[in-house]
UniProtKB/TrEMBL annotation:
Name used for this protein in its record: adenine phosphoribosyltransferase
Record family assignment: Belongs to the purine/pyrimidine phosphoribosyltransferase family.
Subunit structure: Homodimer.
InterPro entries: Ade_phspho_trans, Adenine_PRTase, PRTase-like, PRTase_dom
Keywords in alphabetical order: Cytoplasm, Glycosyltransferase, Purine salvage, Transferase
Entry-linked PANTHER family: ADENINE PHOSPHORIBOSYLTRANSFERASE (PTHR11776), ADENINE PHOSPHORIBOSYLTRANSFERASE 1, CHLOROPLASTIC (PTHR11776:SF0)
One term of GO molecular function: adenine phosphoribosyltransferase activity
Pathway field: Purine metabolism; AMP biosynthesis via salvage pathway; AMP from adenine: step 1/1
Gene Ontology cellular component terms for the protein in this record: cytosol
Listed GO biological process terms: adenine salvage; AMP salvage; purine ribonucleoside salvage
Enzyme class: transferase
HAMAP family: Aden_phosphoribosyltr (MF_00004)
Tree of life domain: Eukaryota
Length: 260
């Protein structure tokens, strides 16, 4: 997959993210207006543990903050002092590998983030701080890297974790949703009975590129009456415009990264 540098500082009044009450934002970064959902970003500093990996230099873009024009102040998420430092650590911990899986691609490798216990913890903490107390009962993780970030977030906010899997991976009765790829199509599956109508869900993956898998997950959940509150990713590749495919569904990301 491929990846991105941003952090949402607020949400729209119409956004379902905040049931009854919300915290006022205390972000210390600058604001700029963006056309859809807001993302707040920061950039870079990290100390790696001793691991046998080839040296690299991050090519991530410098920090910036963006807030959608639809965002209303009374639904802004609280941002703690020092949050920019945490996002900076996360951005620095993501390794960029050129020409993988094919020439011209800058692959955003989160395995180096997982080796840095501080950056990994910061990543989970930022998501937990955003969604705790928001009446989310389901965290739906997209195979495979959504399985890394989803379960600890679900446990921390008191939600169940539901895996969204590739075909023929789940052993029980499933419902499926087909989605388009650059060449051909694929399917996403979920266990029948894993979620109930009226539940509020967060969909999470490590990265949004073209947005196809996130859209399939949204459709799958909504088919059984689940309210998809928001999609969340560690990284976004803005050049691929996956955000546009989500329609009116909010998207929260930590890092914006170049895709090529």
């Amino acid at each position: 997959m491929m990846q991105s540098t941003s952090l949402v500082s607020s949400l729209s009044n119409s956004s379902p993210l905040s049931p009854p009450t919300t915290a006022a934002a205390a972000a210390t970064c600058h604001r700029v207006e963006a056309p859809f959902t807001g993302v707040v970003t920061a950039s870079s500093r990290v100390e790696f543990p001793s691991v046998h990996l080839r040296p690299y230099r991050s090519t991530l873009s410098p920090p910036r903050c963006a807030v959608s024009k639809s965002v209303k102040e009374d639904q802004e998420m609280a941002l703690e002092d020092g949050q920019d430092d945490r996002i900076a650590r996360i951005a620095s911990a993501i390794r960029v590998i050129p020409n993988f899986p094919k020439p011209g691609i800058l692959f955003q490798d989160i395995t180096t983030l997982l080796l840095d216990t501080k950056a990994f913890r910061d990543t989970i903490d930022l998501f937990v701080e955003r969604y705790k107390g928001k009446d989310i009962s389901v965290v739906a993780g997209i195979e495979a890297r959504g399985f890394i970030f989803g379960p600890p977030i679900a446990l921390a906010i008191g939600a169940k974790f539901v895996p969204m899997r590739k075909p023929n991976k789940l052993p029980g009765e499933v419902i499926s949703e087909e989605y388009s790829l650059e060449y051909g199509s694929d399917k996403m599956e979920m266990h029948v009975g894993a979620v109930q109508a009226g539940e509020r869900a967060l969909v999470i993956d490590d990265l949004i590129a073209t947005g196809g898998t996130l859209c399939a997950a949204i459709r799958l959940l909504e088919r059984v009456g689940v309210d998809v509150v928001e999609c969340a990713c560690v990284i976004e590749l803005p050049e691929l415009k996956g955000r546009d495919r989500l329609g009116d569904k909010p998207l929260f990301v930590l890092v914006n990264a170049p895709g090529a």
